[in-house]
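This section describes the prediction task in plain terms. A model, or a person checking by hand, is given the sequence of a single protein chain and must write out its three-dimensional structure as a string of tokens. No templates, partner chains or ligands are provided. The sample shown here is typical of the held-out split.
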Amino acid sequence: MKIFLDMVGCRLNQAEIEAYASQFRLAGHSLTSDIHSADLVVINTCSVTAAAAADSRQKIRQAARSGSRQIIATGCYATLDPATVSQLPGVSQVIPNLEKDQLVSSVLNIPSANTEHAIIQREPIPGSRLRTRAFIKVQDGCDNLCTYCVTRLARGKGRSRSIEAVLTDINSALAGGSLEIVLTGVHLGSWGADFTSPMHLSDLIKAILQFTNTPRLHLSSLEPWDLTPGFFELWQNSRLSRHLHLPLQSGCAATLHRMGRKITPASYANLVNQARSAIPSLAITTDIITGFPGETEAEFSESIAFVDDMHFAGGHVFTFSPHPGTAALKLPGRVTPRISKSRNASMRQVLQASSQSFHQLFLHNNLSVLWEKASPANGHMWELSGLSDNYLRVRSLFSSPCRNQIMNVFISAVEAEGLFGEIQLS
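The expected answer:
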């Protein structure tokens, strides 16, 4: 069969469809970038916002319009609203999150051991989900009680994968030519806490650096309360990417309390200062929610001032989205859509300004860049786009496509969406 894989949402969803790609190939099937030619379509859905749920429905409808014979829906939206998803055109099966690790064996009706324990070199998923970097799922589920979060309801309790399983996936990716490994999870920082003999994420990182030749190791989102100053000593190993994504959600202490977050602005700022002291040129990005129930003008002013003071390298801003089953749904003081939208725009402006300031720090300096895309430019030149080890988007022109290569680049200009530079060959 020809398999078409797609997803909406987070890096964890990307990691999961990459695992499906390997498992389908192990079972003798091929992947296609042409949905019209696919015998089977798998859509990994998302429900973190109303927009993500709408995007998930749209992708399923697009698959149905393409004439796909069999559409499998999985992921958070499919888990939380299976009745609606099952009624969408073309959907033949809805597989909830707690069963999604066995999706391939279930769909193909083969023993799970046939796909879980064999090793095959990673090949990037063709089409729009093609990624140079390899996303590796190391953990699933969450035991936090953030009042706004629907992902916890969709994903269940925290569950960690063994070091051996993670190393197997990483070595598969490295054998396929991947130069950057990205560790993903719903609550990545809780990795190992559920083991009989509890471990910490730092133990997994040390094992990866010791037992694999990963050129570049990148961590996805980490909750600030999972980290200690000693954690940052790991960055003495230069193979760890100098980027941390630390969700803040609000810079106001009262709002954070209503959100059920285990931090205060003061403790967050202290952690950020420790990280920056330990890791030179570290990029710190974040997530912010605006319009949370009860957020007054004074609270929003406190939040935006704190975000401004943090000088983030970038971030995502979300307008509060109410979800059935979450505690925030019952909180009083709902902020009107007009005000929420206005606050979202203001917060984005602050983050954009701080991002530009951070980018300016690297003007006339060298950065190590992994090229992800190469497009024909004028003449015989190619336009390259990639990410530095501290997660800055870099563009350059070169005489040949250099996709999936790491090169030193001298930064000569700061652009609206990133940096521009010249490749240094010596």
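For orientation: The chain has a mean pLDDT of 94.
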